[in-house]
Amino acid sequence: MKTTTIEEIPRCDYEGSRYQSEFWNEGRSYEDLAERIALKAMIPPRGRRIVEVGAGAGRLGDLYDGYDEIYLVDYAASQLEQAHARWGHDPRYRFVQGDIYSLPFPDGYFDTVVIVRVLHHVKELALALREVARITAPRGTYLTEFANKRHLKAMLRYLLKRGKAGENPFSLAPYEFVPLNIDFHPRYVYNALGEAGFWVQDERAVSFFRVPLLKKLLPAKMLARVDGWLQKPLQPLRITPSIFLRSYRPEAAGTGAEATGRWRCPNCHHAELIDMRQAVRCDQCGSIFPYQNGIYHFRANATE
Ligand SMILES: C[S@@+](CC[C@H](N)C(=O)[O-])C[C@H]1O[C@@H](n2cnc3c(N)ncnc32)[C@H](O)[C@@H]1O
Prior knowledge:
Rossmann fold; globular; 304 residues; alpha/beta
């Protein structure tokens, strides 16, 4: 059987997309507020370094205020330009174009890693989580969201035999309902986190009221407040389209060394990169990663 290399994995490219203005600014206040309630309850409020991978336009950037260094990473430069326009005035924020499968940071670099609304674009979950575990400090926290395939509407559709082709909310297998949009079974995600070396500590079910009529009739703030009340007590039912997990990376033998540099080469994994004014250079493989308009461009294969 042919094995896929990291370069061959398809990515969901948001370059040039108007995701922030067309998705978040158009009737999604309830989802945004409900997600913030979950995140505020689950993210360790203070720390040295935090990174959000797949941060898009930096929608959630204000939640990281208790950290000394805040890294916003995204695959798409145009998303980061928007994030930079929002948060670039604060010197604690750094903007990094990078890839979840090969992140440009040394081992154990972050106290906290956050990933929200990204895993549904991740075709090779195990590989991505392995990389997330690598950059998480021993005893560090990984806060993630995933799209839940066994949400209430999917289960009803299935039981009434109205499901889409291939949709079975009770099976463990990921459900790719359109290319690079994948819903996961909670148990599948738990298993993948365990294999990557994480222990799940906390879970919240989020977005109980993602129903157009309800959102039209009731104010977003009110719906979000009630959502917040239900997130913990109704979590065991796991009937929401979105689930948030807080995992912990226990200290493993041979880890815990302080990283000496800030970067690791995404091409050759050399960890002693040279930070020049307008670029970061890897002397081991010759890659040059430009720094332009406040953004570090660390997508792999940027050789001279
Ligand atoms: C649905 S948006 C979510 C943005 C942000 N987390 C939010 O909740 O507003 C998904 C983001 O994941 C990014 N993304 C997709 N694949 C990625 C990858 N392989 N590495 C890093 N980011 C990726 C996209 O560029 C996009 O900005």
